[in-house]
Write a structure and sequence with these properties.
This protein is an all-alpha fold and about 190 residues long. The chain contains 7 helices and no strands. About 20% of the residues are buried.
């Protein structure tokens, strides 16, 4: 029996420092390799990446609406409500998107909605971008908007699988809104 204990001890003791090193690696902060010197930036949150992409895509769509209205002023009345919704989407996906309370009072909800609408219009209304090409015919310009809305709605629906629950609900809602915009843009 003593010989077995000596053999086990001889085999186990040299392996302990290596095992401790492996286990110590489990406690390193994310994004930092075990034994790597200095702090390292953690890898970005996938949900935050999706949110930033959604905000950027909504901003590009908003720029298309603005460019279309600038190129075809007669469409302004028709596009104004759709553009306003897209501006709210930009605000909702943006980093400063206000969180709504779980059970808002009717007056608080109305004032919050009004202030969100005003801030979304003010902060999310870039001047028409020179990089956005608008067709010269009104019908073609509406078709281009509908195509971008449809593409964006499809991309957002596909992103639902990778999104955290709160963002998935927002993406689904905005994708459904975009699909509705497609139908409205195709009306004659």
């Amino acid at each position: 029996m003593p010989r077995r204990r000596a053999v086990r001890t001889a085999l186990v003791l040299p392996a302990l420092p290596a095992a401790a090193g492996l286990l110590g690696g489990c406690s390193d902060p994310p994004g930092r390799r075990s034994g790597a010197p200095g702090p390292s930036t953690p890898s970005p949150d996938p949900g935050e990446i999706l949110r930033e992409r959604a905000a950027r895509d909504s901003g590009a769509l908003l720029a298309r609406y603005d460019a279309t209205v600038a190129a075809h002023p007669r469409l302004a009345t028709r596009l104004r409500p759709l553009r306003a919704e897209v501006a709210l989407h930009v605000a909702a996906f943006g980093p400063a998107a206000p969180r709504r309370p779980a059970t808002p009072s009717p007056s608080a909800s109305a004032s919050a909605s009004a202030s969100a609408s005003a801030s979304a219009s003010a902060s999310a209304s870039p001047s028409p971008s020179a990089s956005v090409s608008v067709p010269s015919a009104e019908s073609a310009a509406l078709a281009a908007l509908a195509t971008q809305e449809r593409t964006l709605a499809g991309e957002r629906a596909a992103a639902l699988l990778d999104a955290p629950p709160e963002l998935a609900r927002l993406l689904a809602s905005v994708a459904a809104c975009g699909a509705g915009h497609v139908l409205l843009l195709k009306e004659k």
